[in-house]
Amino acid sequence: MSWTMAWRTDRISNQRGSHMTTHQPDVVVDWAKGGTAIRWTGPDGDVEKLCGVPPEAVMAWREGGETLVLVVEALDCAPFTPSDNAVVFRADGSERLRLRPPRDLVGNPDDVHGFSSVHPQDGRPLILMATRTGGDFQGRIDLESGEITDTNTWR
To answer: Which helix (H) or strand (E) holds 8?
Structure first.
C-alpha cells in the first residue's frame, strides 16, 4: 500500500463548521472535517468511501452533464513523495481520474507537495496546490486531460 489512501467503496462544498453537506441536483455528499468516512447518495444508490487518514477537503459539482465528487487526500510534505493526492469520483463511486499537480509551478519539480484544498467558484472547483519554496497556487481541473489549467499564485 502506498502513502495514498486505500479506498473502500460500499454500495449500500459548502462547509459549515466542521461538518459539510453538499446538495447537487442528483447527489448529496456528507462528510465531517477530520472524519475518515465520506458518503454520498444519488440516483445510482448510496456510496461510502473509507480512508485511513482524514482527507483535506471534499466537494461535489456538476460538469458536462455528470455529477462528480472531488476528494483531496491528506497532503504528505515529505521530500520525494507522490503528489497525486486528489481523486475525482463519479456519482456511482467509480474513480474517474487521479489528479497530478503541474510540475512546472516552481523551479524544482520535487518542491511541489500536492493538493491542499478546494473551494467552489462559479460552480466548479478551484483547487489549491502547495509547494515547498514557491508558496501556494490555484488552478482548474480539465476533466478531459486530467491536467490542472489556469494556474496562478494563490493570494
So the answer is: strand 8-11
CA quadruple 69, 34, 139, 104: dihedral sign: negative
* pLDDT the model gives residue 16: 36
Instruction: Count other C-beta atoms under 10 Å from residue 39's C-beta.
Output: 16
Alpha-carbon gap, residue 131 to 77, rounded angstroms = 9
Measured distance CA(23)–CA(94) in Å, rounded? 19
> In this predicted structure, what is the pLDDT of residue 25?
58
pLDDT of 22: 53
For the record, the C-alpha cell of 87 comes out as 481523486
Is residue 135 within 8 Å of residue 153, measured between CB atoms?
Answer: yes
Closest by CA position to 40, among listed 15, 13, 64, 60: 60
Tell me how long the chain is: 155
As a whole number of angstroms, the distance between CA 146 and CA 34 comes to 27
List beta partners, residue 131. 112
* C-alpha grid cell, residue 77: 510534505
**What is the mean pLDDT of each successive set of 10 residues along the chain, which is 155 residues long?**
32 39 70 95 91 94 92 84 91 95 88 92 94 91 94 88
Give the per-residue pLDDT at 133. Answer: 85
Give the three-state DSSP class for 44.
coil
